[in-house]
Specification:
One of its GO terms (molecular function) is prephenate dehydrogenase (NADP+) activity. It holds the Pfam family PDH_N. One of its GO terms (biological process) is tyrosine biosynthetic process. This protein is an alpha/beta fold. The chain is 51% helix and 11% strand. The longest helix is centred in the last third of the chain and has 26 residues, at 259-284.
């Protein structure tokens, strides 16, 4: 039996992710309904062709996507299920373990809910920043529970496919540990580095090259959203940040001590960094041939 085809999707939350997937689905011929606490965001999304405002008497959609910050997911999911807005439900939050626990305690229908997280984003946020190609080729992590209905799982998998993303399935805890390593800790490192520049003299900052701009790019992301994300994945992020901090403390101590120990310690971390960078490029592919090797500064 062939997998059911999505004909209608309701997107709750017209930010970057919600509007981007709504744009992509609309261009694929899916009837998309939009909802948001901010009527202006709905109007802007509709004006961009992402869909139409959700009608009060709309029939249940094939799929409802909860595209809100993590702290709102469970409340919105519970209410949407209570109203019968759809036959299947998913979300796009960047943390999964705590949301799953809250959904269980709240009494959400877990048979029709497939937690999801598209690993995509931009330095910009909001409805106006949305792009229909945002998810092309990107991983989209799914964390289905043991009781999920096959039709719900199939609907979410079709969503991922229509958006041009690649589905990866893992338990919520594994998801949270993985994104702490590849997303949440890099964000905090970038923020901590950028914070050191806040009071630097303009003539000093004018000396900076592309490396510093690249390293701190994600520090310009929405502080409110990222505070929500990080607190929802606090244990995994804390453990990952502590590992990075331990390396930095070790380097600071070695540099202060000087001598041969300094050379060995600093050199060892630099070599480990080369190994990590190479492993990242091997796993993700390099878009720039120059990424593979860094030139020696002159």
């Amino acid at each position: 039996m062939s997998r059911p085809r999505l004909r209608s999707v309701t997107v709750i939350g017209c930010g970057l992710i919600g509007t981007s997937l709504a744009l992509r689905l609309s261009r694929s011929g899916i009837a998309v309904s939009l909802a948001d606490l901010d009527p202006a965001a709905v109007a802007l999304g509709a004006g961009r062709g992402a869909g139409a405002p959700l009608a009060p008497d709309a029939p249940p959609a094939d799929l409802v996507v909860v595209a809100t910050p993590p702290s709102a997911v469970v409340d919105v999911l519970y209410e949407a299920q209570a109203r019968g807005l759809g036959r299947a439900y998913t979300d796009v939050a960047a943390a999964k373990g705590l949301i799953w626990e809250e959904a269980v305690l709240r009494g959400c229908d877990l048979r029709g809910y497939v937690p999801g997280h598209p690993m995509a984003g931009r330095g910009l946020s909001g409805t106006a920043a949305a792009e229909p190609g945002l998810f092309a080729g990107r991983p989209w992590i799914l964390c289905p529970g043991p009781s999920v209905h096959p039709e719900a799982a199939a609907a979410v998998e079709e969503l991922v496919s229509l958006c041009g993303a690649v589905a990866h399935t893992m338990p919520p805890t594994a998801h949270d540990e993985a994104v702490a390593t590849v997303s949440h800790t890099p964000m905090l490192v970038a923020v901590a580095l950028a914070a050191q520049l806040a009071d630097a003299a303009p003539d000093v900052l004018a000396l900076a090259g592309g490396g510093l701009r690249d390293t701190t790019r994600i520090a310009a992301s929405d502080p409110g959203l990222w505070s929500d994300i990080l607190t929802h994945n606090a244990p995994a992020v804390a453990a990952s940040v502590e590992r990075v901090a331990a390396d930095l403390v070790l380097m600071a101590s070695a540099l202060r001590d000087g001598g041969d120990t300094c050379s060995v310690s600093v050199g060892g971390l630099l070599l480990q960094g080369h190994r990590g960078r190479a492993a990242l490029l091997d796993a993700t592919g390099s878009r720039n041939p120059g990424d593979a090797r860094c030139r020696t500064p002159v």
